[in-house]
Amino acid sequence: MTEHATRARPWATPLIAWRDSAGDHTSDDSREAQRHVFAGVRLILLGVTAVLQVSLGFGSLLAHPHHLAARYSLAASVLVTLVCAFWVVRRKPLPTPVVVGGLVTMLTASAVATAVLPTHAHFGPTHWLWGQVGWSLLLLLLDRVPALLAALTAHVVLGVGQWLLAGTPDRGEIGNAGVVVLSVTSLQLGALLMTRFMLRNAAQAVEVAAERERAATRAALAEQWDQDLRTGFAGQLGATLPLLADLADGVLDPRADDTRQRCALAATQLRRLFAENDDVPDPLVHEVTACVHVAERRGVAVSLAVSGAPVPVPTDVRRELTGPLAEALSAARERARVSLLRTGGEVRVAVVADAGVEVGTARGRVEVECGTYGRHTRMEARWRTS
């Protein structure tokens, strides 16, 4: 069986999970940034609304005679501002009942104050509430743009309709009304556009910060993977280098059976380590096959039987399962039979080889059983999945 494997990216799976969590984290950060923008702009709108009510509202009431209904309308608008201030100063979003109640109150107050105006007084100094209502609507509906645009449109249509029903305006009054309507609504729509611009910049800033965090995390994961890989290689080479040094110094005889077995074990362990870092659908079978191939290159006839569907096996457990297998195959002389059994409850790696020596010991979560029967050795490594 030939397996085509590419170099693995061990961090790929955790990185995918990290990206999912990072996406949620970015969304949370974006929503938090929006809340900060809305809270800051609402504080400004609260100040603008309060200043207009004091300067234009009370100033107009003191400078010009007004119907009692107009005074009640001013009191209602001030009440709405005070209620909104309870949440705005704490940088909290306005509850829906407050928004609905404030919207109805402001539109009603504007209609009432306009209805009791003297003839030809529309859009003049005594009609101050008409311009101030738009800022209150911005304060209430800043984060509900469709509802805000609908409310502003309804306010303009209602005010203009009441003005037309009050009498037939002349050309000068029409011009004056157009200037007032255009200037007031332009300022209010400009404030809305500035808010949307700030929201977009905040979202872009969050995205840039998130991308930098993702890049830093990818770099850290890659560095950690490289360090783990080097550590693993160093651990295997740590056992191999003394063997090579003894061979080079003539301490070991290459023709001795013990030396050849140690070399075979080192080669098998290194080949299994390389296979561990291959990106394959079934890593355990791939690593077992790598150990088998090394034995076959030494001339050992090895048969491999695999049964059961693939199950996820952690990397450290695969090492513990294949470690005794590598020892048994490196000690085999002519023949070996390897079997891999996977069930819902356990994974078994077994080998029968003409080794004649006991191999393998219990390793962490893996149970190892080994026995010799004449010139043959039987070893079984078992890992319980639950």
Q: Would you write up a description of this structure?
A:
The structure is a single chain. The protein is of the alpha+beta class and 386 residues long. It folds into two domains: 6-211, no CATH class; 253-384, 2-Layer Sandwich (Heat Shock Protein 90). It has nine helices and seven strands. The strands form two sheets. Strands 3-4-5-7-6 form a five-stranded mixed beta sheet, with helices on one face. Helix 1 runs antiparallel to helix 6 and helix 2 (68-88) packs antiparallel against helix 3. The longest helix has 79 residues, at 171-249. This is Signal transduction histidine kinase. The chain crosses the membrane at residues 43-63, 69-89, 96-117, 147-165, 177-194. Keywords: Membrane, Transmembrane, Transmembrane helix.
